[in-house]
Amino acid sequence: MNTFVTTCITVVCVESIMVLLLMSIPRLSFLSKTLSEAFTKAPLLDLIISILIWIPWLISSMVSGWVGIAGTLVGQIITMQLWIVYHEWTYRNAAQGPRIVSFLNQRFGWWRNHLGLWVTAMALPVFFAIRLAQIFVYPFLIWLLGFPNYKHSDWINVSRQKFEGLIGHDLIWCLYCDWMTGVYSLGAEMLRNVESFWCPIRFYYGKKCENCQIDFPDIEGGWVSADSTMADVVQTLQEHMPSDHSWSWFGHSKKLHGKENH
Q1: Residue 116: which pLDDT band, with cuts at 50, 70 and 90?
Q2: Taking the model in full, what pTM does it have?
């Protein structure tokens, strides 16, 4: 119990200080505002998220095992709730106006709405794994096969903090969705390349093709039909992979060796 409490208090203190520092940076000088803007985009955004969320998990697990992880999680939740109270108190007028949390609490009930939000938080490790794959796995495909490269900051960023009237509870969860959407979209783009450039064969089940073509537009007009032959597959690969490795597929912008043109 002492380990749990000590870990929890340590996390609350350290992360509260970090959050206050991040909030104060834009108010200091022009350079600080520039730095603050950089923190909202990869790669610095990755660093901030790592320091605030998963690195404490790793450190506490190495020091105190599962008790440390539990203490860290509780400490992080307490820190977030304290920040919400502080931010909503700071913007008291906005807190009294129309808000997402107020509407959803009325529509579904307080406990259903909040429990639903915490259920989505359980997906955090999954999105961290996807982000790590984007950073450390996909680059090998760029190097080995000339797959399209991407400017991660165009995808991995947060900007909803600039939306007028979005505060406290609504802001923190909207920032989570903001980040999560970027990670998913970049991951889907990378997976689309893997599928289209390696396995351009339509699925046998039409319903799966219909469902997947939203994220994989090459299915229509790019991939060969399920009743085609391997010769058709190879011919399709030849047509879409010239000798200069300029990747070009239906549903994609022109893909050049190691670059992406819009």
Answers
A1: very high
A2: 0.89
